[in-house]
Design brief:
324 residues; 2 domains; alpha+beta
Length: 324
């Protein structure tokens, strides 16, 4: 067929293909921060390929996928409470998402394909999953070394935020930091309501029993007067919640965990901002239960200016340790 006889692709379709490829490239770049964005990359490449082949539902489906993301983000932020309210970012992201969705929708409208095709169910199912999945699971990144060597700085963890069980001693928990609920912490639950806790020369005791803790590590040799002999007179700045704990929840030299709360500690005991300093974690602050590591990046270095993936940590399950 000559160039004159070949049907000319509508401008809206060409624009939609360019928009889908642009979104795929943006998703590909985002993989450096989160490997799960590979899903969006594949979806948008499929949209571009489908539009090129003349599939109307590739345009409609891509627009529906973006609309589902647009719905999922505020729903997730609403469930997260104050910890996630970054309204400027939300508005900018919503505007971009809406713009790309409109371009893909127009591309679908410009094609004469059968909008009742079977592929529509695939796109509808993908949109439903896109809305529901963040309400059940959520990704978090470990920003500090406080959970070494169980979790490393740069580990990205999948957390079940729905149907999360009540924590037991030894479980890892994700929660909103009681001092500033805009921040999210991950620590190990070391005390449940009624437990009596003390530390003597770095050794943890619960209800009078000396604990064997294979997950805990100490990376300094010296004994800190407050950190390593707890509870005692603090020699550092302790927030109001920590002061309240020391003033009202210490009995016979032990901290007693109150109802509907837990006592959280980092596995890196010598470098962890935890309940020793800011008090208890209220049950209402619990976010969910970590399941596994889905990505892990080393910090950039002078020889490697881009973060490097720790491939050996991918899909590593995160399990608690029964503390009796």
């Amino acid at each position: 067929m000559s160039d004159e006889a070949r049907p000319r692709r509508p401008t809206a379709v060409t624009t939609g293909i360019v928009a889908a490829i642009a979104m795929a490239c943006l998703s590909l770049l985002a993989i450096l921060g989160s490997p799960v964005t590979i899903v969006s990359c594949v979806v948008f490449l499929a949209v571009a390929l489908g539009l090129r082949r003349g599939s109307a539902w590739s345009g409609y489906g891509g627009a529906l996928y973006l609309a589902a993301q647009w719905v999922a983000v505020p729903l997730t932020m609403a469930r997260s409470g104050p910890a996630g309210t970054q309204w400027v970012s939300l508005l900018v992201g919503s505007a971009l998402t809406g713009g790309f969705a409109y371009l893909l929708y127009r591309a679908g409208r410009a094609l004469p394909g059968n909008v009742q095709g079977r592929s529509r169910w695939v796109w509808i199912a993908l949109a439903v999953i896109t809305v529901l999945a963040p309400q059940v699971f959520r990704g978090y990144s470990t920003p500090t070394s406080s959970m070494e060597d169980t979790l490393l700085m740069g580990d990205q963890i999948l957390v079940r935020v729905l149907w999360a069980s009540t924590p037991s001693r030894g479980d890892l928990i994700v929660f909103r930091y009681p001092v500033d609920v805009r921040q999210t912490f991950i620590k190990r639950c070391m005390g449940v309501p009624g437990d009596r806790i003390k530390i003597v020369n770095k050794q943890l005791y619960i209800n009078g029993q000396k604990l064997d803790e294979p997950y805990a590590c100490h990376k300094t040799q010296y004994i800190d007067a407050y950190r390593d002999n707890f509870p005692s007179e603090p020699d550092v700045n302790v927030p109001g919640l920590g002061q309240d704990m020391l003033a009202h929840h210490v009995v016979n030299g032990e901290v007693v965990v109150p109802p509907d709360s837990c006592f959280a500690m980092g596995d890196n005991r010598d470098s962890s901002l935890d309940s020793r300093y800011w008090g208890f974690v209220p049950r209402a602050n619990l976010v969910g239960t970590p399941l596994f590591i889905y990505g892990s990046y080393e910090e950039p270095s002078p020889s490697h200016f881009m973060p490097r993936q720790r491939w050996g940590r991918l899909l590593t399950p995160i399990r608690g340790y029964a503390v009796n």
